[in-house]
Amino acid sequence: MPTTPKQHEQLRLNLPPVRAISFGGGVQSTALLVLAAQGKIDFRLFLFSNVGHDSESPKTLEYVETIAKPYAKRHGIELVELHRVMQRSGEVRTLWEDLTREGSRSLKIPVRMSNGAPGTRSCTATYKIEVIGRELKRRGADAENPATIGIGISVDEIHRANKRRCEPHERIVYPLLDLGLRRIDCMRIIREAGLPVPPKSACFFCPFHRPETWHDQRRSEPELFEKSCQLEDILNERRDMLGKSHVYLTRFGKPLREAIPDGVDLLPLFDEADGTCDSGWCMT
C-alpha cells in the first residue's frame, strides 16, 4: 500500500541523521578512512566528489580506485564516487570541460592575475561542496534533519577550518582537530594500517600548486605539465579576444613554461606563499 505524503514526511523525519566524510583521496581524508575502519571515529559513509577524470590528479584517482575503495569495502565502509551532473540534461560535466569548451568565458579556478594575486574561484563550490550537498539531501538531509559532514583538516592546517558558513542541511565537523592530529600523524596512521601514503590531492592544473609542485610535474609528468600549459594558453587566447589582460597558473606573472623552466632542480622563491584551497574540501 503506497504511503501518503504525510506518512512519507514522517518516515523522512525518522531517518537517522546522515554522517559522512568529504573524501578527497589525500593524506588527511585517507587517515579518516583508516580511523573509521578502526572504529575510532563514527563515520561509515565517505563521499568522493570527482572533479573529473580529465581534471583530478591521475595519481589521486589511481589511489582512490586501487587502494581506498578496496580498503573501504573490506571494512564495510561506503565510499561513494560522485560527479557534477547537469540537472536538466543529466550530462556529467568536468572542470576541464567547463574551462576549455568553446565559447566559455568561465574562470572557475583561482588563476593568478597580472599582479600575481589570485582571482576569484568557484571550482570548490561547484565541483565539491554543491555535489556533496546534493548527495546529502538525496539521503534525507535538510534544515530539520541536517547531515554531519566531516572535513579532513589537521592541526597544522587549523587556519583552514571555519572558512565558510554551513548550509542549512549540514553541520561541519573536523575530526582530526578533535583528535589533535597533525598531517605527520595522519601519514603514520596510514602506514601503520599497511597502506601506502597517498599523493597530495588536487587538480593537476590547480593555480594553488607551489612552484616545487609545478617543477615536479614538469620533470616527472611532462604530459600533464604540457596540458597545464595548454590550459593557460586557451584561457589567454580567450582573454585576448575579450580585450582583457593575461592570467597565469603561477604567481610569477609569466607563462607557465617560462615560470617553471626545464632542467632546473631548484627554483627561487620556493616558499609557502602560494598556499592551498583554504576550505578543506580540496587537497585533503
Automatic annotation (TrEMBL):
Protein name, UniProt field: Phosphoadenosine phosphosulfate reductase
Matches recorded under InterPro entries: Rossmann-like_a/b/a_fold
UniProt xrefs under SUPFAM superfamilies: Adenine nucleotide alpha hydrolases-like
